[in-house]
């Protein structure tokens, strides 16, 4: 249609490219940058020889796309050429997988900067520490050095300056540096705890399994979780071992130092109470930790007719696996079998015909050789009264039929890996010796009793705190709060000549013309992913940072674009809200769909990346700002009542 308003042009989804379309609409509705490209100023500043750039191809492709979007001749266009060029220089975006709109935005801004860098030959600039000099002197020097190597429309529009302060906790040395930034990646002050359900298997198997619920830090360790469980049930934390059980097998046994991030909410977690500290099963300890699986015969029949059918017998896992401690001095099959039987006594069912009442006690007490499985009888065959001897009666009273056979097995319980018979010499590893109990009949073991679970009173308590309203200022204050570096991210102190967990604090020293704020909704690692869906309230007009500035000049911002994410981790959908510079009206951009919206709709739980334009009395470039007097340099600091990050 020839009557389209310039800029109100949708972008076709080329296959999971909603993240790219969202980022492009936010950039397209940034007036200063769009006017620069529509006036074709970028063609005069292309830096095709920059080794850090994309030979001008990203800037050219983006400029051509903006010409189509702002021509007013079409309601939708397909950004195929732009996507092709992005994928050419950033292979991670070349396919059709879902990505993050902020990551695409960061790549685009970096690419445009290097393609349009006015510095053709970058000089070497030596970084200098503050060495006690006034902050405004060091900041001005750092910014001028930055401009010697970086000068573009992106620097003019999007780059500000951080003040970074590091304090050594040992020698109290203070290091101050000033660095450029294009994004504020602010955390959300939300609850840092998670509620976890754990099934506690008691040492005494005559007692039921207890299902408990505890609240622990999301960043905590397995040891932290066991401590909480132990305090709840009066069990020493070092006498429990945690395991993820799935399909009657251990998916993984979790060591004390492991992060809880490897435990997902959908995992079924068991804590096994032991009769000795876990430390006694390690190194020079006197105990061995046995992992016990249960298997039973499974008969598979082949063929459809009575006369032609055949069958085969294999072993399948059943019942809840167990973990026990035994002495490392155990070196015989009989002693090992007796120790296991003693532990499982409450759940062993004696064959009805043996005359043994309840559980099988003889196997746990008698260390005489146990008959081989091939000669074992499922049911006792009684001899005629006349043929019974006194010895037969005595043997019947002191021996019992074999209920199971012990075998070495792999950690998944899927295959036997070693021979173990009544004549074998038992070799136990200090930790994680995996054995299977191949039951002669599954009726000999009470699998129902082994998995009986009783809910603890902690399951009736709600640990979830009601979500309080979060304001953007809360996020900014939290970002600017002093924190100590983690154990895996120490700082090398030039005073101590050692790596230290220094205290670090950010301040925003110089504010950019366009402030891009990313709400850090996503947190993930190799095992665990999470998205924070809390709504963050942010102003559409008048984001006022003047109260935290040295000077009140140029510290007021108005929102002009938002990148939204709907759904969870690993997928979802991206859209954008943006204010059209021609009509000054807000619109919702959802791939090829563009529709007007009320301003109230812009603030939502889906808001992910916010773009604010600074109110200013007149245009300024990075070069002119660098020459400004010191009082014009703003320093934004956190308020003294910064929000606690562990609410």
Task: Describe, in plain words, how this protein is organized in 3D.
- The chain contains 14 helices and 32 strands.
- The strands form eight sheets. Strands 5, 23, 27, 28, 29, 30, 31 and 32 form an eight-stranded mixed beta sheet that branches. Strands 9-8-10-6-7-17 form a six-stranded mixed beta sheet. Strands 11, 12, 13, 14, 15 and 16 form a six-stranded mixed beta sheet that branches.
- The two termini are 53 Å apart.
- The radius of gyration is 35 Å and the shape is elongated.
- Strand 8 (240-246) and strand 9 (249-254) form a beta hairpin.
- By secondary structure, it is α+β, with helices and mostly antiparallel strands.
- 33% of the residues are buried.
Topology:
Blueprint: E1 10-11, H1 18-28, H2 31-38, H3 57-69, E2 76-77, H4 80-89, H5 101-115, H6 135-147, H7 153-158, E3 160-167, E4 174-181, E5 184-186, E6 193-201, E7 209-217, H8 222-233, E8 240-246, E9 249-254, E10 269-273, E11 287-302, E12 310-317, E13 322-327, H9 333-344, H10 362-365, H11 390-398, E14 404-409, E15 416-418, E16 433-439, H12 447-450, E17 453-455, E18 470-471, H13 472-479, E19 483-484, E20 491-493, E21 498-500, E22 503-510, E23 514-519, E24 522-524, E25 529-531, E26 536-537, E27 541-544, E28 556-566, E29 573-579, E30 586-590, E31 593-596, E32 607-614, H14 622-626
Parallel strand pairs: 1-2, 5-23, 6-10, 7-17, 11-16, 18-26
Antiparallel strand pairs: 3-4, 3-22, 6-7, 8-9, 8-10, 11-12, 11-13, 14-15, 14-16, 19-22, 20-21, 23-32, 24-25, 27-28, 28-29, 28-32, 29-30, 30-31
């Amino acid at each position: 249609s020839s009557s389209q308003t310039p800029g109100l042009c949708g972008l076709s989804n080329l296959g999971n490219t909603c993240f790219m379309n969202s980022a492009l609409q936010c950039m397209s509705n940034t007036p200063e940058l769009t006017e620069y490209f529509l006036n074709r100023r970028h063609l005069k500043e292309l830096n095709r020889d920059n080794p850090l750039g994309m030979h001008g191809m990203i800037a050219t492709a983006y400029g051509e796309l903006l010409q189509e979007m702002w021509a007013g001749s079409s309601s939708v266009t397909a950004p195929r050429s732009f996507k092709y060029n992005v994928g050419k220089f950033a292979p991670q975006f070349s396919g059709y997988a879902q990505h993050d709109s902020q990551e695409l935005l960061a790549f685009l801004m970096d690419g445009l900067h290097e393609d349009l860098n006015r510095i053709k030959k970058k000089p070497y600039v030596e970084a200098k520490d503050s060495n006690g000099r006034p902050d405004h002197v060091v900041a001005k020097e750092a910014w001028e050095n930055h401009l010697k190597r970086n000068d573009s429309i992106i620097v003019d529009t999007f780059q500000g300056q951080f003040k970074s302060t590091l304090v050594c906790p040992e020698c109290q040395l203070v290091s101050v540096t000033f660095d450029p930034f294009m994004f504020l990646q602010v955390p959300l002050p939300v609850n840092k705890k998670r509620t976890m359900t754990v099934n506690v298997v008691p040492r005494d198997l005559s007692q039921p399994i207890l299902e408990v619920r505890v609240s622990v830090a999301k960043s905590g360790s397995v040891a932290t979780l066991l401590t909480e469980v132990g305090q709840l049930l009066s069990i020493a934390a070092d006498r429990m071992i945690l395991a993820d059980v799935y399909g009657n097998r251990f998916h993984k046994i979790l060591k004390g130092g492991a992060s809880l991030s490897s435990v997902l909410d959908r995992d079924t977690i068991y804590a096994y109470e032991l009769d000795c500290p876990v430390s006694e099963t390690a190194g020079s300890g006197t105990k061995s930790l046995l992992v016990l699986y249960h298997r039973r015969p499974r008969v598979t029949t082949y063929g459809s007719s009575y006369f032609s059918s055949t069958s085969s017998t294999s072993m399948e896992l059943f019942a809840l696996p167990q973990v026990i401690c035994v002495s490392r001095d155990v070196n015989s099959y009989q002693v090992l079998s007796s120790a296991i039987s003693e532990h499982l006594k409450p759940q062993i069912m004696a064959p009805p015909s043996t005359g043994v009442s309840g559980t099988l006690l003889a196997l746990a007490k008698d260390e005489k050789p146990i008959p081989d499985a091939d000669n074992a009888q499922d049911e006792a065959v009684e001899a005629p009264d006349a043929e019974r001897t006194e010895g037969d009666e005595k043997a019947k009273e002191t021996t019992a039929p074999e209920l199971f056979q012990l075998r070495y097995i792999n950690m998944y319980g899927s295959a036997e890996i070693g021979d173990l018979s009544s004549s074998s010499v038992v070799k136990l590893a200090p930790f994680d010796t995996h054995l299977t109990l191949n039951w002669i009949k599954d009726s000999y073991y009470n699998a129902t009793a082994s998995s009986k679970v009783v809910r603890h009173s902690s399951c009736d308590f709600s640990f979830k705190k009601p979500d309080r309203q979060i304001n953007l200022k809360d996020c900014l204050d939290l970002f600017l709060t002093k924190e100590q570096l983690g154990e895996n991210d120490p700082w090398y102190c030039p005073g101590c000549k050692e790596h230290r967990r220094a205290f670090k604090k950010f301040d925003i020293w110089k504010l950019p013309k366009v402030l891009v704020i990313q709400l850090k909704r996503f947190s993930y690692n190799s095992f665990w992913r999470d998205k924070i869906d809390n709504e963050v309230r942010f102003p559409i007009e008048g984001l006022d940072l003047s109260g935290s500035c040295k000077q009140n000049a140029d510290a007021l911002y108005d929102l002009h674009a938002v990148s939204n994410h709907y759904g969870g981790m690993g997928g979802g959908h991206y859209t954008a809200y943006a204010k059209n510079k021609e009509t000054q009206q807000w619109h919702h951009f959802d791939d090829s769909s563009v529709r007007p919206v009320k301003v109230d709709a812009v603030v939502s739980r889906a808001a992910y990346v916010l773009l604010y334009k600074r109110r200013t009395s007149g245009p300024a470039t990075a070069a002119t700002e660098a020459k400004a007097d010191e009082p014009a340099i703003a320093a934004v600091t956190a308020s003294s009542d910064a929000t606690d990050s562990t609410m």
